[in-house]
Design brief:
The protein is an alpha+beta fold and 152 residues long. The chain has one domain. The chain contains 3 helices and 7 strands, in the order E-E-H-E-E-E-E-E-H-H.
Length: 152
């Protein structure tokens, strides 16, 4: 499955052939999608999905970036899409996924989705990876996280 992401700065649309290309070629060190034309990160993937509740129920989101999780297993790659409720809006959601890439092995393939065999499995420490990323990107204020920790 390919991914088209649009740059709001220069209106260029770029296509990544699959999830591996999207994450390895088209993101910066902070996980934001990078426009190959203007190198800006005001970019997004727009998705609308049908919900199980019925054909009239839709989930519309703008994917603004990704948090990659190192599983320690070369073929298993969990990640979290950072989503917004509007094209120009702030990050408001986390959408968990993973892919398995066994293409380097005989008969291997790329399996991808929100769970080709169920939801992604994360280690406890991975929650800190996600939290650190959200604080670094300004999605969560450091003071709020500190106050939360102190309230426990």
């Amino acid at each position: 499955m390919g991914y088209d992401f649009k740059c709001r700065s220069c209106a260029t649309t770029t296509r990544a052939a699959n999830i591996v290309d999207l994450l390895s070629i088209h993101t910066n060190h902070g996980g934001r999608f990078v426009c190959p034309k203007c190198t800006m990160t005001d970019t997004f993937i727009h998705r609308i999905s049908d919900l199980q509740e019925g054909p009239a129920e839709k989930w519309e989101r703008w994917i603004k970036g990704v948090i990659r999780i190192d599983s320690g297993i070369p073929t298993y790659s969990p990640y979290v899409f950072l989503t917004a409720d509007t094209e120009g809006g702030p990050i408001t959601g986390l959408h968990f996924h993973y892919y398995k890439d066994t293409r380097t092995q005989p008969g291997g393939r790329l399996k991808h989705g929100h769970g080709p065999g169920g939801p992604p499995v994360l280690g406890i420490e991975d929650m800190f990876t996600i939290l650190a990323h959200l604080v670094r990107d300004g999605v969560l204020p450091k003071e709020r996280v500190r106050a939360f920790g102190d309230s426990l």
